[in-house]
Amino acid sequence: MKARYLIRFDDICPTMNWAIWEQVERVLCDHHVMPILAVVPDNRDPKLQVSLPRQDFWEWLRAKQQQGWTIGIHGYQHLYETKDAGLLGVNARSEFAGLPLERQCEKIARALAIFHQQDIHPKVFVAPAHSFDRNTLVALQANGIDVISDGFFWKPVRWLGITWVPQQMWQFRAMPFGIWTICYHHNRFAENDLRRFACDVTRFASKIISLDNATQSMDKDRDILDITFYWLWRQTLLLKRSMKNTARFWRRR
Ligand SMILES: [Zn+2]
User: Fold this and answer.
1) Which fold has domain 4-221?
2) Is the whole-model pTM more than 0.85?
3) Which of 189, 103, 169 is CA-nearest to residue 94?
4) How far apart are CA 242 and CA 252, in angstroms?
5) Residues near ion ligand 1 (Cβ under 5 Å)
6) Is residue 40 exposed (0-12), middle (13-18) or buried (19+ Cβ within 10 Å)?
7) 182 CA distance to ligand 1 middle (Å)
8) Centroid of ligand 1 to alpha carbon of 190 (angstroms)
9) Cα 45 to ligand 1 centroid, rounded to whole Å
10) Tens of pLDDT along the chain (253 residues)?
């Protein structure tokens, strides 16, 4: 299997950074890329309030859905209620992990109700801060969502009754095989991030697929190779992060 890539944009909401987004959207459209838009349906997180709210947000989103872009549920209000790192164990903050099943079901149902009211039909769940637990997966299935965009596998797998389309990178990197999701947060894009994004999309355009493409051939439970790869990738990621934090600490002293 030759390497294929998916692009995901997180923190999509009416008050996101529209000035940057316009440029991002132009690059995506120029190369006919169908990204995953991870949308916060009722954002209450002040960090995601960057621009004045776009009045025709839902209309814009419906047009994207029509175009074939994938809409994801990026939580409900993007507010962290617990310090639980969940199944992935990478960030000790969560809107879901550690909460009782009923609370999680309620949040997912409320999020979906907002989308459905706007005639938007999300296909995939994208947990804020990558933090969710087994109850989140049960709550998603109870609400008709059986795909998540997360985990450090090298290709989509079935695990815990759900399809995991893995998300392992934050920048494009040429890989020999596998399916790789690159996650972007455009609210914080500087000029050079935008340039690099445009260059990478141009370079990898013919290898970028949609979520539907990624899940089509997927009917396999994770095996020992998947589990081993997941563990190695996660360890490497955590090591890199702690090295970066240590370097930052020494620079500040
Ligand atoms: Zn987010």
Assistant:
1) TIM Barrel (3.20.20)
2) yes
3) 103
4) 15
5) 10-11, 128
6) buried
7) 14
8) 18
9) 9
10) 799 999 999 999 999 999 999 999 999 999 999 999 999 999 999 999 999 999 999 999 999 999 999 999 999 999 999 999 999 988 999 999 999 999 999 999 999 999 999 999 999 999 999 999 999 999 999 999 999 999 999 999 999 999 999 999 999 999 999 999 999 999 999 999 999 999 999 999 999 999 999 998 666 888 888 888 889 999 999 898 888 887 776 676 6
